[in-house]
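Batch manifest, entry 17 of 40.
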Amino acid sequence: MPTNKNALARIAILDALLADRHHYYSLDDLTEKCNERLEEIGVSTVTRRCIEKDIDFIEGASFGGNIDKGTINGKYCLRYADASFSIFTKKLSDDEKNLLQEILSTIGQFEGLDDFEWIDDLKQRLDVEERPQIISFSNNPFLKNSNLLGLIFNYISHKNVVKVSYSAFVKEKAGIEFHPYLLKQYNDRWYLIGAADSDGKILNLALDRITSIEPVADKEFVEPAEDFADRFEDIVGVTVIDGKSLEHIVFWVGDVSKDYVESKPLHGSQKIINADDDLRQQFPTLKNGRFFSIDCIANYELIRELSSFGRELIVLTPDDVRERVVGWFTGAVERYRPLISSLPR
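Output type: structure tokens
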């Protein structure tokens, strides 16, 4: 099966030649014409045998191209039985239509994506019928600036450097020149992640805090120095703390929440600690429940996640992570105490 770039170019050329009703092409003709066009686009020429294999591939189950092979005006020729057939306009099966509809619905689920009007046009051209949505992803329809998703998607796709004005919670940041790399959703909020042009520092900009964004003309786009697929592997959320090491975090979860935590891990590294006799002897007050471990960087989002289970989750080690979680609850109690004491009894 042809899979490389040169093979795909040959398949596209042969597809057009086989649909041509103004010429009669033999196998030698197809080889010659294909090589002429390959040379025009700077691709290596091929042998007659290679073209034969490509035609077999077009006829095969992958595309199902029905090719007539016979004598026309005394010449043995090859061409599509249906002149309107093309491997690039192959009719979609019902399963393919259903999957494509779901993908298009997922992309287009956000309100106000002005730069995604092509989705409706694509549905029409592919004859994909509307139907009730089958898969529903988490989406906040009231999120401020969700209309920027389509615009920023295009900036990233076209590798545009942008100038961003950003209203941070602390202070306004105006006119940051920024190399956008990734749109990432976390906790029903969208973040634009990229590098500051001034020093290359990676920044996370929440879309709802962006006050303006526009492309910078004639500015060379700088590719990311790291694989962003791996950037978030060691954290929960979006906050990467430079220079901070992974920590092996052990925690106990009570009976009410243990199955939930097992089925929905706090982090991809989560493991159940099966041999937990030593831990039960070390922490005798923790009855029943289950012990888990994760290996990740302890950022703000992780501490918030660990704290969200209340008394159902107890961090055991390391000390610094446990103390941060304890501090979370201590601070909450200190804020509640004067409020509660002032209430009538």
